[in-house]
Each structure stands twice: as C-alpha cells, then as structure tokens.
Amino acid sequence: MSGRFEATVEVNRPVAEVFAYLADGRNDPQFSPRVLKIERIPDAPTSVGTIFRSTVKDAGMKTAREFRITTLEAPVRLRWAEVSKNTVTAREGGYDLESLPDGGTRVRIYNVLEGHGLGKLLVGLALAAARKDADAFGHRIKAAAEAAIPPSP
Questions:
Q1: Is omega for the bond preceding 42 within 30 degrees of 0, making it cis?
Q2: Where are the beta strands (DSSP E) in 18-104?
Q3: Which has the closest alpha carbon to 130: 146, 145, 115?
Q4: What is the pLDDT of residues 49-65, one digit of tens each?
C-alpha cells in the first residue's frame, strides 16, 4: 500500500532564493522537528545524485534515512527518492515552486509513502499523521524560509 500527502504554501521571498534554501536539505531541521541531524553527500552543491543522509525520530523511534536527488530544475522543480530500507519510506517526493506576481513563491511539497514488510500495516497510520500535519508542515517551511532568507530591499 502507498499513498500521497501534500501541502502548498506561499513564501514571501523570491523563487530562486526559496529554491536554493529548499535544495539544501541540510536546512530541513529548521522546519521538520523529526529531523535530528542531516548531512549532504558529497559535501558540494546539491545536484542530481546527491544523497542526504539523516537521523529522524518518528513515533518515538530513531531511524536512519537516505534520500537521493533525482531531479533538479532550478528554480522550479526538485525531486527525491528514499533509498534507505525502512518499514515506511518516501518512494518519491518533491517541491514544485512558482514565482508569484508580488515577488513571492508558491511552494508545493509532496511525498508518496510506501510500506515494506510490517510497514504495509503501518503506512496508513503514517499517511494519516502526515496528512493531518501537512498544512502545519507547509507553514513551518514558510516561517523557516522567511527567517533564513533576508527580505528583498
């Protein structure tokens, strides 16, 4: 079983700067409290093939996660796929960004969660939790990006 969740939010910063912020997955702990630590491999600008290796805490359990960047089309599209072996994984996910007339950016994030082994029984619970938190997650992205990216003069 698999399923999708998504959120859309408007960030009051230019699309190129929001894209650069989100493409650097090392910023994820600023808006995702489940991410305890994260590193980029190689330690170079994000490109197709870059791996982000993280430790996350879900439902009180720590797990290791690895995501590979599969598409990078600055400043509008970023895609990833989880390559780690966990009971519930993000088979695919991404950001779609759109420049707004006022200079802001519309950001849509999505993930497709998939269960493996025992995870086939748990994926429904994970999806329900992710969908319930989706709007708040979008607002955390907005707040973190606006705090990290100085406003344009």
A1: yes
A2: 35-41, 51-58, 61-73, 77-82, 88-99
A3: 115
A4: 999 999 999 878 899 99
